Amino acid sequence: MTPTSQRPVRSGFDRWGIPILAVGSLLPLFWCLPDFRALFWFGDEWDQLDQISTHGFAHWTLGFFGENFAPIFKLVWGSVALGSGGSYFALIVTVWLAHAVTVGLLGRWLRIAGFGCVGTAVAMIGFGFAAANVETLGWAVQLITVLGMLFFLAAGQWQQAREQGEGWNPRSLLVLGLLTALSSFSFVRGALTGLALTAATIWSLWAKRRGPGAWIARWKVALVCLLPGLLSAGLIAKFAGGNHQHLAAAGWAPPLEYATWYFLLNPLHRFLDVSTWGPHTTLVLGAGKIALLYAGWRLATPTQRALLVPLLVFDLGNALLLGLGRHHTGLLTTTTSRYQYVSLLATVPFVAVLVDAALARVGSRRPLAALIMAGATGGVSWLALSPWPATMKSWADWRGRQGRQTLLVELNPPATGAVPGIDFMPTTKAKELIERYRLH
Amino acid sequence: MAMTTGKVLQPGFPRGWGLLGPVLAVIAVWLALLEIPEAPVPQLDASWQQVLVHAHEQQAAFGNGIIFTAGPLGFLTSRFYLPDSLPLKLAWEFGGKLLLAGVFVGLTGFLGRWRRVTVILVTVVLAPLFSDVFYTVLLTLLVLRWLMSGNRTRWHFATALVLLSFLAQLKFTYCLLAAAGVGLAALEHLRRHQSREALVLLGGFIGAFLGWWLLGGQNPIRLPDYFRYSWAISSGYPWAMSFEESWPVFFAGAGLATLALLVLSSMLRAAPAPRGEVVAPVLFLAAVWFFTWKHGFTRADGHVLGFFLFSILIGIALADLAPALHRRWFEFVAPLGLFGFWLAEPALLRSAPGGMVDRFRVAGFHLLHASAIRPDFAANFAARSRTHELPRLRAAIGQGTVDLFNYEQGLLFLNGLNYRPRPIFQSYSAYTGSLLQKNAGFYRRPTAPDFAIVRVGSIDERYPTQDDSLVLAELPTRYDFMLQEGESVLLRKKASAPAGELRRVAVAEHGVALGQEVAAPDAAGHPLWLEASFPLSWIGKLRALLYRPPQLFIVTTDSRGQEYRHRVVPTIASTGFVIQPMVLSSEDFADFVRGRGTKALRSLRFEPASAAEAEFWAPGQVRFSQLPELPLAMINPMQALVDAGICNVAPDSVTSDTTVEYITLPAARRALLVHATGTIAFTRPEPARRLTGEFGLTEGAYTGANRTDGAEFAVEAEDASGRTQVLWRRTLEPLTTAADRGSQAFAVELPPDTVRVRLQTRTGAKGDGSWDWTYWGAIAFQP
Q1: What is the arithmetic mean of pLDDT over A13-34?
Q2: CA nearest B463: which of B567, B552, B604, B562?
Q3: Of B542, B615, B618, the CB nearest to A278
Q4: Would you state the torsion angle of the CA atoms of residues A76, A79, A84, A88, taken in this order, to the nearest 10 degrees?
Q5: Average of pLDDT values for A209-231?
Q6: Number of helices and strands in chain B (H, E)
Q7: Residue A399 DSSP label
Q8: ipTM rounded to 2 decimals
């Protein structure tokens, strides 16, 4: 048990700043409220509704969603979809609330790991406010990703707090296992949660040069982290469809290529709104990202590295799994907007390290410190927030207004190809679902 | 220099050598650099060297009368010379270079024994392979050791200023580097609150620069123009002159550049306090190294050797130049440079030691027989004049002033013509808007030359009418076609010509993406002028800054559907060039001057060098304009063959698997090379009963390393029912049969029912088409 005198002191930033920034991450929702209200059911969502109506809610919850086994997500998503009386906006609000919690958890974890207030704020703003996340936050089915990362962050900050503080007991292990399981069963790539947290544990032991006794004691932690992910991965590998079933035929090269491009290009390509795309752009942005990661790692303290390790492992694992599952869609899709959420989350803490290191270097030189603070927070805020209006306008036209016009307003829409994002669903089917669940 | 303080060196040469060591070193370096001047030849590089000598003889004003990458004293480094300047050149070779060799050896005195020996050995063996390196290294050491170093004497200081300002007159880029070195040294003095020393430094350099400028026969009033246009020609160089290297050479160069960056940053970090003293030398070394990288890898043919060689020499010197460095991995600079050199030119590297021995032998021979240099030069000059004589042109031009487009000015010197060059005297160098305007302005004045010789062609597969685009477009309004001799079109100045620019009337403008086909608009009987601008994307700009700009290509399609792919220089394309008629040969240009064309443009598109390079470009804009002051009548391209005297009836078609082009036979007879397998098809003109002509394989097909196995020539007749018979056939094997060499004659009687006649060329018995450079000429249908 850590003596009271050695516990980190909660500052005003911890008490107020983090919650304010977490709530503040809802700013784009209010800023572009008309566009968010215009959004409508799209693509996979129609398919999920169809499955609910065909198989029943309970059966659907425990079924596979593409290559995902995500009963937690289905429970939440389905409950809100049906419980709100078919309101799509209610789902959007759910996504944003989950996102705000995720942002708050990120901030909390960063503070537990010893990040400074300014670095934490920069990371929370860069991740939480970014218009690059438009697809994750503007398509309700992406609640799957938000939930997965929410529980991952909860597990991560729980783990680091225990390892820096009171240590492990059965209750804390149970909580860790529960959070890891929630992540693994919310999102296919949530299976990486266990792996990432196990890596964090191993790294901590190695970095602190602990003896064999400490390693043995930690096996429980590793087991608790890994089991849910292994179970989820096993179920998916065995029963779910997807490219992983045809790996032998495809070979490893295309997935690896896709994974490499994804890792190198994101999140800088979207976040900086880079207009070019190709091998040279990938090399330059990739070199920039690797330089950022390297610099952040070199300047980080051991406790900060205990946070960076699981995030980096998650990012790399995410890249590999995306390569496996999405290589057939072409390299151009590596910078799709819905892939930015995880990449941004994994990268912003490295930026936070650099900001904190810069402030530490200037020390008591107030004007310079103020300049760094203003520059970092202002710059990241502008980069993250400024694209929202234009992005959301075109997003809502495509993912909302067109669908509403076709399915809710037009008297005689085409028989096929009219359901937004899901060409094979007959329009009559969509109208049945609208009728049944009072979709709006 | 502060970087070397605190280190106990063992400079000089190995013990026991005494004074002999430095003397031998000076002689070795001098002999390695020694270059006996040669008589002119018409090739590109030789031509600009001769023009520099000519400019010196004519006291041409640099910055106005002549604009090039060289300065007023650049003629001293020319290898190809003119007779009147020979004594000055020999004085430079025997005196000036000896002095420079002595200074160079002296500058290396700070090096440890074996490093000094190695640097001198590498200089002697390798530096002559790329002479720019010697001057760059000399300049670098002058700045670092005799200007910035705390150990310098007044003598060193003064010599450095004099030599730096001298080198600045050889080449504009040396001027920039010297100015950077002097500027940084002055800033260092100011940092130490030594303003008097800074003023002396700056004043001394400027004074010495002006002194050399005046000695070079230049007017100081021209200095602003000199800097302005030299900057234009230097800054435009990467856009116009880029040349790709192989991937291994690129990776070696990029690796070495990265290593250099690490070395320089380590120099700053490793230097003992106060670190401020190290900043100026490190910045200067960074500037020079960056310059050699850009210079080497912009036109990455043999120029890459400059970067690798410079890196080798600096790499060897690094340990003593910056002793605070940890030596382990920085010692890789020199070996990596050597590796890069080997990747780029393995044969040259292998032959370098033998080449050094040859150079010493030749230099020794000339030193012992110095009195024979001038007579030998005169004899070579006379022989080369005979080889490259242009009798018809010479007779027509007489003593009139003449300029030449494109880059073979050596022809003018060898034919004793009265050369009046335009300021950017080789067309491929007029690659920015300001440079194009400068040349155009020259031709708009009454002092424009009486005659102009135009030889259409360019370098690097450029679209020909880009080079000197403004002048070429205006030539038809100022000059008349006189005659064509071989590839040279002679134009004579009109008695009166318009004073201003050619008028342009816009007819179409498009936003356009790379790869997008754009149809040529109808210009209603006038030529079309094309302006195209393709800005770089952010990553294209990054590439241009750190490496070189990407290349751009234009694919033009003529009215027959034939596509042509050429390089386009973006900085020229934004000013514009004639795109219709399509002028791709001297014959096409001769037609253009006479208001007609044989190749009409149907459409065009712009392409990157490869699909992967598309990301370097942002969408562009093209504008087509009509040139209303120039008439244009499109004529049957086959008619051009009649005009050229190749046949007396226009053929229906000319086809070949490989090449169709005009060639010149002895006595300046034009013929048509139709590479086997090829066909010239005619419809028999009604009264014709007989067909005669000449045929053969060009001399180049069977001389030197070229070994044609022979080719078959045949004349076939086709009647109205389509039945074909061979009227005449002959196989030539000039490699083995002497009688088959040179031009041969044929004569066939045409059957009365002949409708079509075909002249066929086919490969020889072995079916190998290599070097089957078959031609036809003087084809005549007779009654």
Answers
A1: 95
A2: B567
A3: B615
A4: 50
A5: 78
A6: 25, 25
A7: I
A8: 0.82
Q: Answer whether B418's CB lies under 8 Å from B400's CB.
A: yes
∠ CA B731-B735-B737 to the nearest 5 degrees?
A: 65
Q: Do A277 and B612 touch (CB under 8 A)?
A: no
- The answer on pLDDT for A132 being more than 60 is yes
CB contact under 8 A, B539 and A281: yes
Tell me how far apart the alpha carbons of residues B284 and B188 are, in angstroms, rounded to a whole number. Answer: 12
Q: Which residues contact B291 (CB under 8 A, 6 or more apart)?
A: B136, B173, B176, B177
Please judge whether B542 and A277 are an interchain contact, meaning their C-beta atoms are less than 8 angstroms apart: no
What amino acid occupies position B783? P
Cis omega before residue B346 (within 30°)?
Answer: no
Residue B295's pLDDT band (boundaries 50, 70, 90)?
Answer: very high
Query: Which of A368-377, B272-281, B625-634 has the lowest average pLDDT?
Result: B272-281
Backbone Cα Rg of chain A:
22
pLDDT category at A245 given cuts 50, 70, 90 is low
What is the Cα–Cα distance from A178 to B240, expressed in whole angstroms?
65
Evaluate if residue A1 carries a pLDDT over 50. Answer: no
SS3 labels along B251-299: HHHHHHHHHHHHHHHHHHHHCCCCCHHHHHHHHHHHHHHHHHHHHHHHE
Is B614 within 8 Å of A278 when comparing Cβ atoms? yes
Name which of B678, B696, B714, B701 is nearest B772 in CA terms.
B701
Residues of B in contact with A281 (CB under 8 A): 539, 615
Give the helix/strand (H/E) hosting B712: strand B711-718
Model pLDDT, residue B2: 41
List pLDDT tens digits, range B238-274: 999 999 999 999 999 999 999 999 999 888 888 777 7
Q: Which of B368, B362, B359, B367 is nearest to B32 (CA)?
A: B359
CB B663 within 8 A of CB B671: yes
A189 by DSSP, 3-state: which?
helix
* Chain A residues touching B258 at Cβ < 8 A: none
pLDDT in tens, A412-423: 888 888 888 888
The tokens for B384 are 């080369």
Mutate to test the interface with A, among B250, B536, B547, B615 (most CBs of A within 10 A): B615
pLDDT tens digit sequence for B384-408:
999 888 888 899 999 999 999 989 9
From the list B469, B478, B648, the residue with the least C-alpha distance to B573 is B469
Q: What residues of chain B lie within 8 A of the CB of A284, using their CB?
A: 539, 542
| Domain extents in chain A | 25-239+250-437
**Conformational region of residue B6, where left means phi above 0, alpha means psi within -120 to 50, and beta covers everything else:** left
DSSP secondary structure of B524-553: SSS-EEEEEE--B-HHHHHHHHHT-PPPEE
Query: Using CA atoms, how far apart are residues A318 and B413, in angstroms rounded to an integer?
Result: 71
Least confident stretch, B247-251, B535-539, B662-666, B759-763? B662-666
**pLDDT beyond 90 at A2:** no
Report the Cα–Cα distance between both ends of chain B, in Å, rounded: 90
Degrees, nearest 5: CA angle B225-B230-B231: 100
Helical (H) or strand (E) element with B758: strand B756-763
Res B115 pLDDT > 60: yes
CA–CA gap between residue B760 and residue B678 (Å, rounded)? 6
How many beta carbons lie within 10 A of that of residue B196, not counting itself? 9
Of A275, A279, A284, nearest to B542 by CB-CB distance is: A284
Taking alpha carbons only, the member of B703, B778, B771 closest to residue B743 is B778
- B154-167 and B172-191 helices, crossing angle to 10°: 150
Predicted local distance difference test score (pLDDT) of residue A423:
82
First to last CA, chain A: 53
